[in-house]
Amino acid sequence: MKTPFSRRQLIQGAGAAAGIAAAGKLTGQGLFTSTAQAQVTAEKSALLVVYLNGGYNSVFPSADSYRAAGTFGVTGDNIMRDLGNGLIVDAPTFGTLLPMYALTHMATVGVRHGITAHGTAQNANFGDGSRSYALRLAAAMGGDAAIKAVQAGNRNTPGPRAAESGVSLQVITDMRATIAALGGATDPTIPDRTVGANALIASKAMSERLRATSPGMLTQLNEGYAAGITTLQKPVQVFDYNAMATAYGMQTTATAVNNFTSQMACAELMITAGANVVIANDGGWDTHGDRTATNVRNMMRTRILPPLATFINRMMNRPDYNVNVVILGDFARSLPGSDHASSLAATVIGKYVRTGTTGRMAANVQLPAGTPSCMGLWQYLSALVKAPPAMGANPHPSLILPIT
Question: Which residues have CB under 8 Å from 213's CB, separation 6+?
């Protein structure tokens, strides 16, 4: 019998299937009017990757590097905040707008990749040319979540995209599909969970022949079907979307992931639904000519830190979660003109982070020879989330607390 589905229809349905799969651990009474619920775990580890496309000025995680020459606007001690153990950050931004938990669980990690071209640096930060660091980590972390790796929003994640042990990068551009799959008993447009699962089973069977012709292209859809069907009846706990949206200053009916604030809300939603790794990409950080770092400070103050602080306050104080955040970009910004440096100083915040730095820049925005490259950062992150050392041993042992 001829299938009623076209290839285009299947691909377009992948996002909705992914949302339903993500919500397999979630249920609730209605779409926007009541609570949703999520499965409880002993200590759920997760990683939020905040990627600043274009670059990440090292004045934020290594402010004292520029005190002597007064570069990047570091004109006095009031521009720096000493967090201890050699870590000095930018006071007007990190030192003022991040919560105390972040300031006492923060480290700067050096990445000496030797690259000054955007595309090459972006790809190196996310993979080794053929395998994605983020997907390798998400797969190594395990768990039974329907979706383990998420791109929040439509800005593409650099680097390789090949699935790792069945884990692929799922793109969420609208949270509505996930929220709508929470049960919706009081919303007549949302089917009963059992009815929804049966509909997925029927849809999967009807499209099986066509899906088999392009298994690679339709990986996300295939995973969405399987995970959505098998996880719609998992144990649950309370999760309130309305409260979450309000906390981020969003309308409770707003579900599109189209700015950094909604990316942070999406990250919270997906981590609560069981995701291991969430990536939030933000653009506009190729800041040539920003000699005093005024532009990047303004972007950090107005666009990044307020919703990130909300995420940290809501997710990092929970005893049942081990949530970590890494902030990085293509490379640091060079002097004198805020151009392309050949190294990167990344910021990491998390429960098991020991305050300190392996990424203190020299005054000319260089890191010492022997500083690990991109994989070294991901090896450190792997240790923080308690994943098996699939990518090798942590080369930054001084920046980690004993893990229980």
Answer: none
pLDDT tens per residue across span 47-78: 999 999 999 999 999 999 999 999 999 999 99
- The pTM is what? 0.84
Tell me the pLDDT tens digit for each residue of 129-176: 999 999 999 999 999 887 899 999 999 999 999 999 999 999 999 988
Name the CATH code of domain 43-177+253-399 (choices 1.25.40, 1.10.260, 3.30.1300, 3.40.720).
Answer: 3.40.720
Q: Which residue has the tokens 């005054």?
A: 363
Phi and psi of 107, rounded to 5°? -140, 155
Residue 147: the pLDDT is: 87
Angle at 176 between CA 171 and CA 178, to 5 degrees: 65
SS (H, E, C) 309-333: HHHHHHHCCCCCEEEEEEEEECCCE
Is it the case that residue 24 has pLDDT exceeding 70?
no
Alpha-carbon distance of 271 to 22, in angstroms, equals 10
- Contact criterion met (CB below 8 Å) for 90 and 80: yes
3-state helix, strand, coil in the chain (%, to 5): 35, 20, 45
